[in-house]
Design brief:
Helix content is about 35%, strand content about 25%. It is an alpha+beta fold. The relative contact order is 0.26.
């Protein structure tokens, strides 16, 4: 099972900081809130098959494209599930 690590949370905050020019409402996003939401999702399949996870923040840029945060394997820790 993959869980978002500290590096992933910092990546989300950096993404928020660097995308404020695309949509000023991005400033209102909270990295910890996004991390918490991602933590409740099943990201294992996408990470296993694609080597990255894409998270749509629910906002669009000035051209109408969905704003997406891409997180790589290095942004997650993997733990074997205990039975």
């Amino acid at each position: 099972m993959y869980t978002l690590n500290t590096q992933g949370v910092y990546h989300i905050q950096k993404w928020i900081d660097s995308n404020q020019d695309k949509n000023p409402k991005v400033f209102d996003l909270w990295a910890g809130g996004i991390a918490s939401e991602i933590g409740r999702l099943d990201v294992d399949e996408e990470l296993t098959h694609n080597g990255r996870y894409s998270y749509e923040v629910g906002m669009k840029d000035g051209q109408g494209h969905n704003l997406v945060i891409y997180l790589g394997l290095n942004h997650f820790d993997y733990e074997e599930l205990q039975s």
